[in-house]
Structures are given as structure tokens and as C-alpha cells.
């Protein structure tokens, strides 16, 4: 019997895509912050990716500190005002993601709560990406938030799934995990003993067939309970 459902956040409960493009450092039409730092977009991307573990696991307090570290590593002299401006731009962009939650997402969460099913969120995220979460329409439905930047571990490591189960006081076999599959999260959930399903309703990645059943509509999650 399913006692709890764990959800991924990005591309599962909210989407970072608009008109087929990823909203990353600003509006969909914006460019990389690299030129603002006096470096190429390619170099910034390399440094950004290299800091992914630190960003997700809370080593960097915020986006400002990531930029500061990049500048220090590359021996670039950029004033703090510029870095703060870039930080504020990223925070404000991420806030927008929580203002237009898909109605079927909220309908699903409401029905799960009505049925007495516990709801958990397991997300790989950095601090500036979740400012809007706590005031969003999502948060009232979620019993436990397991956020990588706060718990200092991330998907697909088994530890974060087991921590989520402990917080909801359920066994892995009593839960299911719903996510788009980024960060190898479905394999991670499976390795933790949780039945995993691939959410495809935002369709932002290729959804080639694999061992994970695909769920094309949020309300179809109810059929798994």
C-alpha cells in the first residue's frame, strides 16, 4: 500500500521552460552572465558546471558567493555591486517559476491530501532557486521538504531518499517517487528501494522508452496509489 508520494521539483511540479527555452540566468532571451564578468559564455559555463556539487550541497551560501568564487579562481576583478545585481536578477527570475503552478498539479496534490497520502519533496537545488517555494501554492500540500542545499546531500545518492523516508516515517517500499529523471534521480530512487516513475507532462527532455513507466498527466499519478 502506498503511504507517501515523493516528488521532484523542477520539471515535475514546476517548469523552467518557456517557449521551448530554458529560463536560466535571467529571462529566456537573456545571455550568460559571463560577459558581465569579462569572460566568455563558454568559460563561465565550464566554471558553473564545475561548481555544481557545491551549489547543490550548500557549500556556496548563494549565487553571489558562486560568482565571487569564479572571479577569485580566474583572478577577475569584478565589483560586488555587479555581482549583487546578477544575484538579484537570478533570484527574481526563479521567483517567477512559482507564480504559475499548473492547475492539474495543485489538483493532484489536493486529492492526495484528501486521501490521506503523505507528500514529500526531494529536490536538488541551490538556495536562490527556492526563495519562491515557501510562499507558493505548493507548500501547503507538502508534508516534508528535503532540499539538497539544506540537507547537504543530493540525488541520486541513496542518503537523500532515506532521509526523506525517515522524515515521513515510512519505509521505501511504502512510497513512490515521481520525477522527470534529471540527475539520474529515478535510478537513485530505485536503488533506495522506492518505485520510481517518469513525469513527462512538461516534456522538456527526450522521453525515450526505458524501464521507468512514463506518466503524461499529473492526475494519472492517482492510478498508482
Secondary structure elements and pairings:
Elements lengths: L3 E4 L9 E2 L2 E2 L11 H4 L3 H10 L1 H5 L6 H12 L5 H17 L6 H12 L3 E6 L20 E4 H4 L6 H11 L6 E5 L5 H7 L3 E5 L14 E2 L10
Parallel strand pairs: 1-4, 1-6, 4-5, 6-7, 7-8
Antiparallel strand pairs: 2-3
Helix pairs in contact: 4-5
Q: In what order do the strands lie side by side in the largest sheet?
A: 5-4-1-6-7-8
* CATH class membership of the largest domain: Alpha Beta
CATH topology of the largest domain: Rossmann fold
Structural class: alpha/beta
CATH superfamily of the largest domain: HAD superfamily/HAD-like
The averaged pLDDT comes out at: 93
Shape assignment: elongated
Q: What order do the helices and strands follow?
A: EEEHHHHHHEEHHEHEE
How much of the sequence is in beta strands? 5-15%
Tell me the helix content.
25-40%
CATH architecture of the largest domain: 3-Layer(aba) Sandwich
Structural summary, described in words:
The chain is of the alpha/beta class and 225 residues long. The protein folds into 2 domains: 4-15 and 101-224, Rossmann fold, CATH 3.40.50; 21-96. It is 36% helix and 13% strand. It has 9 helices and 8 strands. A 6-stranded parallel sheet has the order 5-4-1-6-7-8, with helices on both faces. A two-stranded antiparallel ribbon has the order 2-3. Strand 2 and strand 3 form a beta hairpin. Helix 4 crosses helix 5. The model has no long low-confidence stretch (mean pLDDT 93).
